[in-house]
Amino acid sequence: MATALLPTSGAKADLVKTLGPVSIQGKFGNFQILVNGQVVATDREVSTLFIDDAFPSHDHPEWVLLSYGRGGNFCDAAYKILNLRTSPPALSSAADNCRALTYMVTPTQLIITDGAGDIWFYTDSGGMEKAPKLTIEDDVRRGTDAYKSGDFDLALRYLWPSAASKDPQAPYLLGLMWHLGKGVDRDYKRAKEFYEAAAALGYAPAMFRVGTLYANGRGVAVDFVTANSWYRRAADLGDGSAQYNLGLNILAGRGAAKSAKEACFWFLLATERLVDPHDLEAVKKNLERTLPQLSDTELAEVRRQALEWQPGTFSLFTKAADLKAWIGKHPFSKVNGFQMSEVPELAVRLKLVFGDKAAQSFPMMDGPGSVAEQDGWLVVNTCQAHFCDKVHFDFAVELQSYEIVGCIRYGDFDRQTEVWSGTNFTPVSRELVTLNEDQCDIHRLGPEGILATLERLALRDNAPSVTKPPKPVPPPQGERTVGTGYVIDHMTSIVTNAHVVKECRAISVRRSQTAAKGTIIASDTRNDLALIRADLPDLTPIYFREGRGIRPAESVVALGYPYAGLLSTMPQSSTGTVTALAGIGDDTRLMQISAPIQPGNSGGPIFDLSGNVVGTVVSTLDAIAIAELTGSVPQNVNFGIKASVVRDFLDSNGVIYATRASTEKLDPADVSEQGMRSVVMIECTK
Known about the structure:
Blueprint: E1 4-8, E2 18-19, E3 22-27, E4 30-35, E5 38-43, E6 48-55, E7 63-69, E8 78-83, E9 90-91, E10 102-105, E11 110-113, E12 119-123, E13 127-130, H1 136-149, H2 152-159, H3 169-180, H4 188-199, H5 204-216, H6 224-236, H7 240-252, H8 260-271, H9 277-290, H10 296-308, H11 344-354, H12 356-359, E14 369-374, E15 377-383, E16 392-398, E17 404-412, E18 415-422, E19 428-432, H13 442-460, E20 480-487, E21 493-496, E22 506-511, E23 514-517, E24 519-524, E25 529-533, E26 543-546, E27 555-560, E28 572-580, E29 590-593, E30 605-607, E31 613-620, H14 627-630, E32 638-642, H15 643-652, E33 658-661, H16 668-675, E34 679-685
Helix pairs in contact: 1-2, 3-4, 4-5, 5-6, 6-7, 7-8, 7-9, 8-9, 8-10
């Protein structure tokens, strides 16, 4: 049976009543399903019944997918399977929950999902079964475990419905399955689509895999220039396999200028990051062949560059203009796994502008909507299906400053609340029963009209007088990156990673809504540490752990600003354990932790359960370096600089810090709450 990835229910234009030996007769409330003219089932409840598809082919169907309409205004079609392999043909139970459904068929099963966590799967032996409803994290974890154990049918059931989530592991593993033909028919083009989805989330192994497809001509024409561009993206993020392949192509002059010196640089980096012994042996042999081609001066320069090199960081959304990806789409469309209102930078501001209660109403507004650009603003609107006049939000985002203005209307249909607000305005909230003259309509008013309405409402409701602020001055152009730091003393000395503040034209240190200019006091690129100062009030210096050092299996809490935006209320915490007291290549300056780490966490503190700092987050190891050979998928392999190394750095720069023994055991939530008083976001403009 051929593998297919099929559209959502209702998207097909060729729903029919007859296909091969199967036909449907009757009308609303009295349908008959026939096979070769014989009635095999009846249905007296549904309003519509069609044949949606058949597998493995329409000419020789074995499974026939039937689409049922329940009637009414709200429910999309349900699905049932008519199995022609059995005698007599068997009709399955329904997959149905009043949402549009998407389905995928493989040689052994058919999977159906609604995109909101409900998953059904159909097999010959089990019929239609509904999978337990889990979080996306649990779905991906179970799918990963199934992949590792070789149960690819089970892996598909959990991973495929999560392919559009924020977790790159799901599309990456799906890419491997289609690439290698595990559980599905091999399809390089499909594999490339999944790899690219994972790469868009910053997953370096997926970038490497796309590069290999171009290098080997799998599903695409051989193109070493494009392959090298993908390798370089992954190599810059620290992927050892990409660094090795990029070095090989540069050494041979494939798709790049031939250069033994640059190839040697990438080989040196790869030797520290490859984990597969065969790859490690190969890169060392190529390094030995390359070294004699360099002069002593060139070799010294390359070794110094490799020693000072630090992996880059990846951020999905770093500025308001990134929201342009939604232009022409619905705000609930997924871009890199995010709906628009889920983007961290925007979500925080919407909540601050309109309030928690109004923001909680966003998920119900999945009816008609659009995103467009107008005079430097991003104009967004959507509403609740069938009730657009009563439950809707309209807002505009200024693409340089991130200023927000708009109106949200929500509530029960007999009790409506309307909130008009903006970044520089006091919110005006009122209870409504009927429509009024100030109903928000972004298309009619435009951003300037909403600004004028906000000014009028502020005055009419005796709210504090608000005048329209001057047009904000655009920030300096250039790349903006985000990291984390923590306060050491009452002089507001802040420790972070050297790569967080490397080559910054301007550094801003932020805590909640307060920001101050940051100044670099000292930097140690060898150990990736930096010390900065900023005039921020109400920060609590941390304590370093004194006495016995942290041990493997001890619990830790990491704090930082993953995917942080221009404004954030507080850092986020993650928990895990110490898994090793050395890093890659037995580097004793580092320790390995299992606490999840994302872009933006770099430079953040790692606390023990006494609330004392035992390390500084420095990097994460991209997983699945040898999945094609072993199926082993390492997870949460992250690294921190040991506190002893940080203290040596502070001692060498004359910084006084506090220590205390780790005798008290706290709940991780208490450690997180205490630590948040010491953690700051660091913004770097390059």
